[in-house]
Amino acid sequence: MKGLLDGVAVAGRRPRLLFVHAHPDDETLATGVALAHHVARGDEVHVLTCTLGEEGEVIPEHLAHLEGAAGDPLAAHRRVELEGAMASLGVTHHLLGVTSPGEPTAYRDSGMVGSPAASHPRAWAGVDLAEAASAIGEVLDAVRPDVVVTYDATGGYWHPDHVRTHEATVRALASRADAPALYAVLTPQSWVLEDRAWLAEHVPDDLGLVVPGPRDPFASSVVPDAVVTHAVIDPTVVAAQSKALGFHETQVVVGDGWYALSNHVVARLAGREGFARLDPDTGQPVSAGGSSVSQDALDPARFRQAMGRLVSGVTVLTTTTAGHDHAMTADTLTSVSLDPLLVLVCVENETRWLAAVAQAGVFGVSVLSADQRPLAQWFATPGRPLHGQLDRAPHRRGGQTGMALLDGALMQLECRVTDTHPAGDHAIVVAQVLSVTLPDTVGPALVHFRGSYGSIA
């Protein structure tokens, strides 16, 4: 694969790279290899951070008092963490909208969709796009980079601040006659599968960490190998990346060749990062031949982005085999027939739930209410252990099937599988409804839109 500077003409000075990120630690987690590699090359490397991550989940118990406290003391602490990581990596750092040390930040971590933080007047995701682009444009004017690196259109995992960072960066570059080369961070699927196999062999079993399996879902930034056209592969800088991550103690636990966040899901520090070049006018990937991907191109990532704009309800599907409960979050429940009563769900072929329901032949459906968003996030967490996964989800057992049905759901179904149809990388599971449970009162529903959770009454 090509490197980030391949084809970039620089005359009479060192190449200059700018990495644009949403929160502290994003820079080292997503692009730490590229940062350390280009510093070691002698290139001029800059990092722009748009917020101080005020809504981060704190890992160490001795710092737990910072999380959610009045006055945002977590922001001040993470600012120090960020400064340490940037100094360790040897990069030049910029905070968006801050021109002197200690100056208050202009924008704040937005949290997730539907959270109180999302409505904060300084929330980054809620800032007018023109204003956000102008703020990033000021940094572009000051740095004048040859290369800019940020997220893809999904933000890597659909966090609203990451999506806004992508949108604002693209907007800031779109009107520039001398626009630098623009890249998005993307990971080839084959790398992820290799990393998961490595983690299964190298992460100790007694740490309470979750190692994703080969059938667990991928993040939105994981794409078919052919989509990734550029890479930085340098295992020699893993030590530098690990050292920088160590400064982000509130957010990251660093091990020997791996790290874990507050969700306890472990990831590998593999010394490699993938990228795809973006068209600065559209924010869409550029083909390997150098031409822009058309607006109606049948690209998997673009199709996923398009379908993310279809608002859907959120369900948890449950089944049981060999005494183990299997559960997963899904947004594909569809009514098929009233005579007989039939529904269908579409499930990725590699999921543990699909393999389990093929054996059980029955499953439960719980349509979630707005206040059950944490359960939706939990049952969508890759690699979570089977044992005890329902402990945090109050539930009852259905009278027809014995499947777990979540308390507080807007409605519950028990179903028996009648047909399973292969459909590309998914399977369509058709089932007869055996029971329907409706609560007396119905509150707002949890919905899924553009990769984030929201609510509708």
User: How many β strands by DSSP?
Assistant: 24
Shape: globular
- Mean pLDDT metric: 91
Span between N and C termini? 49 Å
The main pleated sheet reads as: 7 strands, mixed
> What order do the strands of the largest sheet run in, or round the barrel if closed?
3-2-1-4-5-12-8
Query: What's the helical proportion of residues?
Result: 10-25%
Low-confidence stretches: 291-295
Counting helices, strands and paired strands, the structural category is alpha+beta
Number of helices: 9
**Radius of gyration, rounded?**
23 Å
Tell me the strand percentage band. 25-35%
Notable features of this structure?
24 strands; single chain; alpha+beta; globular
Could you outline the blueprint of secondary structure elements for this entry?
Elements: E1 16-21, H1 26-41, E2 44-49, H2 73-89, E3 92-95, H3 129-143, E4 147-150, H4 160-174, E5 181-185, E6 187-188, H5 189-202, E7 222-223, E8 230-233, H6 238-247, E9 253-254, E10 258-260, E11 266-268, E12 272-278, H7 300-307, E13 312-313, E14 315-321, E15 324-330, E16 334-338, E17 341-348, H8 352-360, E18 362-367, H9 373-378, E19 395-397, E20 404-406, E21 411-423, E22 426-437, E23 445-449, E24 452-456
Parallel strand pairs: 1-2, 1-4, 2-3, 4-5, 6-7
Antiparallel strand pairs: 5-12, 8-12, 9-10, 10-11, 13-23, 14-15, 14-18, 16-17, 17-22, 18-21, 19-20, 21-22, 23-24
Helix pairs in contact: 1-6, 2-6, 3-4
Kindly describe this structure:
The chain has 457 residues and is an alpha+beta fold. 24% of the residues lie in helices and 27% in strands. It has helices spanning 26-41, 73-89, 129-143, 160-174, 189-202, 238-247, 300-307, 352-360, 373-378, and strands spanning 16-21, 44-49, 92-95, 147-150, 181-185, 187-188, 222-223, 230-233, 253-254, 258-260, 266-268, 272-278, 312-313, 315-321, 324-330, 334-338, 341-348, 362-367, 395-397, 404-406, 411-423, 426-437, 445-449, 452-456. It has a 7-stranded mixed sheet, with helices on both faces. A hairpin with a 6-residue loop joins strand 19 (395-397) and strand 20. It starts with 15 loop residues before the first strand and ends with a strand. Residues 291-295 have low confidence and may be disordered.
